[in-house]
Amino acid sequence: MALMKATAQDRATRTEEKRARREKRLINPDNIEKLAERYLARMPYKAQGCRFHSFVVYFSNIHRLGWVEATGREKPSAFQDHYPPGPSRKYYRLTEAGIAASDRDWANPQATLYGKE
């Protein structure tokens, strides 16, 4: 959500700067806020959250880092009545290493796993 808000704010600022320059007036912060709200409300569906594949890659990285571990608890799952049962749902918990990891490491576990550039 923070990324979406930052993107909307950036677009709104650029738009207001262009309009102010074209109209030969000062930049109005109220216009930027209104535009940012409008852009945020109109953000496309795919930009509104993590896709499944992105989650799988993220979770795989934090699992390899040892930040999560399986609890041993599983629960059967099913998609719908006329489909065969899906794989069991596995439950995980944070490890001490996961709790100790910094916010920066959590934000980009791939860089933590493979080294920062």
What's a concise summary of this model?
By secondary structure, the chain is α+β, with helices and mostly antiparallel strands.
Could you describe the 3D structure shown?
- The model has no long low-confidence stretch (mean pLDDT 88).
- The chain has a two-stranded antiparallel ribbon.
- With 117 residues, it is an alpha+beta fold.
- It contains six helices and two strands, in the order αααββααα.
- It is 55% helix and 18% strand.
- The chain has helices at residues 2-23, 29-41, 52-64, 96-100, 103-107, 109-114, and strands spanning 68-78, 85-94.
- The protein is elongated.
- It has two domains: 2-48, no CATH class; 52-114, no CATH class.
Record keyword descriptors for this entry.
single chain, 117 residues, alpha+beta, two-stranded antiparallel ribbon, elongated
